């Protein structure tokens, strides 16, 4: 059984002026144990609503939800102690120190000073734990929120847009922290619309749009699924002439800088070389088009009218 299992999850909300807005539209999801799982989609795709359903903060309108084997919301109390989470922004007291914020939560969770020492060290805030939170950067506040989520030493950590609004330095710090937490054997479930960032930390991903699952799998599998449609890049002495030669043989291509992008699968590269060589045009380079998660997302959702 997966750490998180969703089957046909649905949730809609009543609009103020009548009618209903569908936030999650029959979502199926299976998150395996261990590592970092990226939950990807544009703003408004239903990511935060899904997380709120997982944590029992809102009641699903339909479908089944299991978290660490417990049915949500009915049996959530049996497993919530094993779950740490940040939904949207961490809730902190700005006029208290980082340490004092953690002490208040530690008392609620029934953990002691040693647990606080461990988490502030873990997130790199040991030297600033005595400073008031209002003096923290956004990145430091986010790391303090992660420290709070780690107080219970959870086996599952759920982070909703942890890099949202951070400067480049803060993004790098949070990225390295997430990567290291996943390497410890925990399951880190990270929702984000920043596809390039998640690609650097995730082992598995799921892409959703308009509350529906578009694709899921390992990062390598998801990239490979789109790579066969991405085409080939070829460098030739005269790109415009090469495009015309290929078009005569029914192969679509376009000039991109000093190269051409050819709409064929990588396994058809030999055919491109042969066609051009017949007319005295010789390649200096031929390679598959590099594919990233953003490219995959745009390809998979091009008929949805969406952008990351």
General description of the model:
- The structure is a single chain.
- By secondary structure, this protein is an alpha/beta fold.
- The protein is built from 10 helices and 14 strands.
- The strands form 3 sheets. Strands 6-7-8-3-9-10 form a 6-stranded mixed sheet.
- Strand 7, helix 5 and strand 8 form a beta-alpha-beta unit.
- Helix 2 packs across helix 3 and helix 4 runs parallel beside helix 5.
- The chain starts with a strand and ends in an 8-residue tail after the last helix.
Assign an overall shape.
elongated
Order of helices and strands: EEEHEEEHHHEHEHEEHEHEEHEH
Number of strands: 14
- The percent range for helix content is 25-40%
Main sheet specs: 6 strands, mixed
CATH class of the largest domain: Alpha Beta
Given the structure, what is the number of helices? 10
Q: Spatial order of the strands in the main sheet?
A: 6-7-8-3-9-10
What is Rg?
A: 24 Å
Low-confidence stretches: none
- Through-space gap between termini: 31 Å
Q: Which range does the strand content fall in?
A: 25-35%
Quote the CATH topology of the largest domain: Rossmann fold
Quickly give the CATH architecture of the largest domain.
Answer: 3-Layer(aba) Sandwich
Average pLDDT, rounded to a whole number, is 88
The CATH homology group name of the largest domain? P-loop containing nucleotide triphosphate hydrolases
């Amino acid at each position: 059984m997966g750490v998180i299992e969703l089957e046909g999850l649905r949730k809609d909300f009543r609009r103020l002026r009548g009618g209903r807005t569908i936030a999650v539209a029959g979502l199926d999801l299976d998150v395996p144990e261990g590592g970092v799982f990226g939950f990807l989609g544009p703003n408004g795709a239903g990511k935060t609503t899904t997380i709120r359903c997982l944590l029992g903060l809102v009641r699903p309108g339909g479908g089944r939800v299991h978290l660490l084997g417990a049915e949500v919301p009915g049996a959530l109390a049996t497993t919530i102690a094993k779950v740490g989470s940040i939904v949207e922004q961490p809730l902190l007291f700005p006029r208290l120190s980082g340490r004092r914020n953690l002490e208040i939560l530690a008392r609620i969770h029934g953990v002691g000073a040693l647990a606080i020492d461990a988490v502030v060290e873990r997130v790199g805030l040991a030297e600033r734990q005595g400073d008031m939170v209002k003096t923290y950067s956004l990145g430091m506040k986010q790391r303090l929120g992660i420290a709070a989520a780690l107080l219970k030493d959870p086996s599952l950590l759920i982070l909703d847009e942890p890099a949202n609004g951070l400067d480049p330095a803060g993004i790098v710090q949070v990225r390295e922290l997430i990567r290291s937490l996943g390497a410890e054997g925990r399951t880190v479930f990270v929702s984000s619309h920043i596809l390039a960032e998640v690609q650097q930390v995730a082992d598995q991903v799921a892409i959703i749009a308009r509350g529906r699952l578009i694709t899921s799998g390992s990062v390598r599998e998801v990239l490979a699924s789109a790579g066969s449609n991405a085409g080939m890049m070829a460098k030739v002495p005269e790109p415009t002439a090469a495009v015309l030669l290929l078009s005569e043989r029914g192969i679509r291509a376009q000039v991109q800088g000093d190269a051409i992008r050819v709409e064929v699968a990588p396994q058809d590269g030999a055919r491109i070389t042969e066609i051009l060589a017949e007319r005295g045009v010789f390649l200096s380079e031929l390679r598959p088009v590099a594919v990233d998660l953003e490219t995959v997302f745009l390809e998979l959702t091009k008929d949805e009218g969406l952008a990351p």
